[in-house]
Amino acid sequence: MSLTTDLNGRSGALSKKDTLVKTAARLFAAQGFDATTTIQIAREARITEPLIYYHFKGKEDLFLHILEKGSDGYLSRMKTLGEGGPVQFKRIEKLITLHFDIVRDMPDETYLIASACPARLRDEGDVCARIAETQRKFLTSYLRDCLKKGMASGEFWKVPVEPTVNVLIALINGLIRQRCLRLEQVRGMKKATIEFCRRSLCKP
User: Fold this and answer.
1) For 115-118, which contacts have Cβ atoms below 8 Å and span 24 or more sequence positions?
2) What is the CATH number of the domain that holds 88?
3) Tens digits of per-residue pLDDT, 36-75?
4) Considering only CA atoms, which of 5, 1, 32 is closest in space to residue 17?
5) Is residue 7 predicted with pLDDT exceeding 50?
């Protein structure tokens, strides 16, 4: 077994299935779904190919499992944000910082969600459509609450709530797509993103 750190920062030994899933995610992200074979996944995970079919119906089923697992990890991290304190921009700053952390901690999973899901969103029954809808609902509720409370307290400028929520969601989705856009190595992005939002929302 190999060692890894889970999404909550705990270290431990990976089971053969976990090793299989992590190896497949890395290969799918590096070379694409079509170019990755089950034989290659098995070889690099140091398992037998039949073990893949013991756990999954096939390569597509394995790929969908990775997307769902990545989504579950993403949403579990989002739920740690809670309602926060009285300073609403601190809540938005925590949300932005969390997305940079998620991209750092789950590079292959977030890349696959960002690169594979847009083409699958028209199918309402697809896992990607469910991921996108769940994320949208959470972010909409969280950001709407931040904006309304921030304007009510005088912390934020008066802005149209729903359009501003949509702009912030688009910005956050852009953060998830850093690797797709080859921006993950650009220095200072987190600070620039936070300061851009601060100047746009906060009164001096």
Assistant:
1) 115/29, 115/177, 115/180, 116/33, 116/63, 116/67, 117/67
2) 1.10.357.10
3) 999 999 999 999 999 999 999 999 999 999 999 999 999 8
4) 1
5) no
Residue 190 identity: K
Region for 37 from its dihedrals, namely left if φ exceeds 0, alpha if ψ lies in -120 to 50, beta otherwise: beta
Please tell me the total number of residues recorded for the chain in this structure.
Answer: 204
Structure tokens at 56: 């999954």
**Helical packing angle, 107-116 and 59-78, nearest 10°:** 110
Q: What share of the chain is helix, strand, coil (3-state, %, to 5)?
A: 70, 5, 25
Domain of residue 57: give its range: 3-201
Domain count, the chain: 1
* Helix pair 59-78, 16-31: axis angle to 10 deg: 100
